[in-house]
Design brief:
This protein has 609 residues and is an all-beta fold. It has one helix and 45 strands. It is globular, with a radius of gyration of 26 Å. 50% of the residues are buried. The model is unreliable at 1-47 (pLDDT under 50).
């Protein structure tokens, strides 16, 4: 639900939608245990304090912010007071979080631009000074240039696009497998094709590169970050969808079950639309997303004027069930502008000094962030917002040899085996100056040491301008997506041997690529078309999203009530063509599994000439 003042705020800033307010939803542990804080400057010295978001010291919070309290049962949260230096005391209501370990104070009216805010409660608060958490509301940036539009490549008739007689509404891009060696993973391939021929939408392929499931989006909508996850004890699919005219976007996170039914959608909070760069569902029922917000700022540290538009990157956590904000972290106030490799260019665009492009959880509940424009990744305390350490960039907390440094990186996460992984683009702006790499690090926080363990290089020796990902599989293999300008994705053994490589054709691209096990049973049954020509009937059968189909039985007859099995066919991809022994006016198909058990039956159709 939008804050009642949100629309007014958006209207009050001309050009504000040119660079959408995106935010990062960071999924936290259920009780927010990472980085526990004890305060010495509040009443109740030595008592574990309650975390508050926006964090103390935030210099540019949204005027439609809710005040989120974490680490306390809602019934014990009393005496909440919120006062703006211009807007005065705020009325509101406490909305409990679904895990019972926090609540959000939802204000009845918005704050005013530029004002200071004080938050108090009857419990100790993280970051409080003299009993109050203080932050400031950001100033609007003024009129901004419209973002550069990326072309919409949707063209179902273009080369490199699949076509199906049984599903003429589906036109996913084609994929060519160029390398497939023994030992490669049997998991399905998850992509979110965009900007190429065919339709955009989440796409699942089998290990041979054949389409298993495709969900086309309406024109002008894009899909990012499509993967399998777990939500409320069941296997689900998650992806971001929305409008993305340039490097940023505003949209919705989607969660669907194994029948491809949408279980939940996640939108941004506090006035920030969810951005394209991250939608990560956690086992605790929260979501991690990324967002951006342009504000007026002093850019002299970047060679700019004292008052200009700066693009802040915001990391947030969302409670999926309630939509409440559980965590909010701003690059401004935590990362100095001097760390950025971005430069001021005289224009009407906001300067993107950090460009957050991934958010993940570490094993201790703290957050892992990647900032493309500082060439660094960060570990952030989830309760205080403090940067615990940096890897790479101008102020790395760890000494690294020259070959271990990275630039313009994406997708910083921690693998189940404790290693840290990221994708090194090797550059920030084209042309690429180095080969794209998937990097694996070890970090010893106690000894203050980091070491590059492995580097997987792009097989054709190409650089990557944008995007990219790296995933560690349960068997120790690595899946690397090589980013913008390169439509390839690869799988390597733990020792670095290339086992699998495939390519999206006709310059289609996918922001990230993953491999996961998946079992899908669609609610919609199989589809078929039957064509009769020169006395011969051919049946074309498909079942979008069904993973257990091994073959087809074809039933045919002279009437819909007199059908019998006349042919069988092995599943040969999304659509299987099965010739019949003779002309058949009416046909239907049954999908069968490897044991021959019937999974589903199609409707009966009449053969067309």
């Amino acid at each position: 639900m939008r804050h009642p003042g949100e629309k007014a705020w958006l209207r009050s800033v001309p050009g504000i939608l040119a660079i959408p307010f995106l935010f990062v939803v960071l999924a936290a542990t259920a009780c927010g245990s990472g980085g526990g804080s004890k305060m010495s400057d509040v009443d109740g010295v030595g008592v574990t304090s309650v975390a508050v978001y926006p964090l103390a010291g935030t210099p540019d919070a949204s005027p439609v912010s809710e005040i989120s309290f974490r680490g306390i049962e809602p019934a014990k949260l009393t005496g909440v007071s919120v006062v703006g230096s211009k807007s005065g005391r705020h009325a509101g209501k406490l909305d409990p979080h679904s895990d019972g370990m926090g609540a959000s104070f939802v204000l009845a009216k918005p704050f005013r631009a530029g004002e200071a805010v004080r938050v108090r409660a009857d419990v100790p608060l993280v970051g409080a000074r003299k009993g109050a958490v203080r932050f400031r509301i950001g100033l609007p940036p003024g009129v901004l240039d419209a973002p550069k539009n990326f072309p919409d490549g949707t063209n179902p008739s273009a080369p490199g696009t699949n076509h199906y007689l049984s599903r003429p509404d589906l036109h996913p891009p084609s994929v060519k497998v160029t390398t497939s060696k023994p030992g490669a993973s049997s998991g399905y391939v998850f992509l979110a094709p965009k900007s190429g021929p065919g339709q955009d939408g989440p796409l699942i392929l089998d290990p041979q590169g054949r389409v298993v499931w495709f969900h086309p989006l309406q024109r002008a909508f894009k899909t990012y970050d499509f993967r399998a996850a777990s939500y409320e004890g069941q296997d689900v699919l998650t992806w971001w969808q929305g409008k993305a005219p340039g490097e940023y976007g505003g949209g919705t996170g989607v969660i669907a079950d194994s029948s491809y039914r949408v279980l939940a959608t996640v939108k941004g909070g506090n006035g920030y639309p969810a951005d394209i760069h991250e939608f990560r569902v956690t086992p605790q029922g929260t979501a991690l997303i990324i967002g951006y917000r342009p504000v007026r700022w002093d850019l002299r540290a970047l060679g700019g004027p004292k008052n200009h538009a700066l693009l802040d990157s915001i990391a947030m956590e969302i409670d999926i069930k309630t939509g409440r904000v559980l965590f909010e972290w701003h690059s401004l106030g935590h990362i100095p502008l001097s760390e950025s490799y971005a430069h001021y260019i005289r224009s009407g665009s906001a300067v993107d000094f950090t460009h957050l492009n991934s958010v993940a959880l570490d094993t201790d509940g703290n957050f892992l962030l990647s900032a493309r424009n500082t060439w660094a990744v960060y570990k952030v305390d989830r309760r205080t917002g403090k940067v615990l350490w940096r890897l790479g960039g101008k102020r790395s907390s760890f000494k690294l040899p020259k070959y271990a440094y990275f630039r313009g990186q994406h997708d910083f996460t921690r693998a189940p085996d404790g290693k840290y992984t990221l994708f090194d683009n090797g550059n920030v702006i084209p042309p690429p100056s180095r080969i794209g790499r998937g990097l694996v690090f070890s970090v010893d926080e106690q000894a203050h040491k980091a070491r590059l363990l492995q580097a997987f290089q792009q097989p054709q020796g190409r650089g990557s301008t944008t995007q990219g990902s790296i995933q560690v599989l349960p068997d120790g293999h690595y899946v690397v997506s090589w980013g913008g300008g390169i439509s390839d994705f690869s799988e390597f053994s733990e020792g670095g041997k290339l086992l699998f490589n495939a390519r999206l054709l006709a310059k289609a691209a996918s922001y990230r690529v993953y491999r996961f096990p998946w079992s899908g049973v669609p609610r919609r049954g199989p589809d078929l078309v039957a064509r009769t020509k020169k006395g011969r009937t051919v049946v074309y059968a498909s079942w979008n999203g069904a993973t257990d189909v091994a073959g087809w039985q074809v039933l045919a007859g002279n009437s819909p009530d007199s059908l019998a099995v006349v042919a069988n066919g092995q599943w040969r991809g999304f659509e299987t063509a099965i010739p019949l022994p003779g002309p058949s006016p009416y046909v239907a198909v049954r999908a069968v599994d490897e044991a021959g058990a019937v999974l589903a039956r199609s409707k009966t159709v009449r053969a067309k000439k």
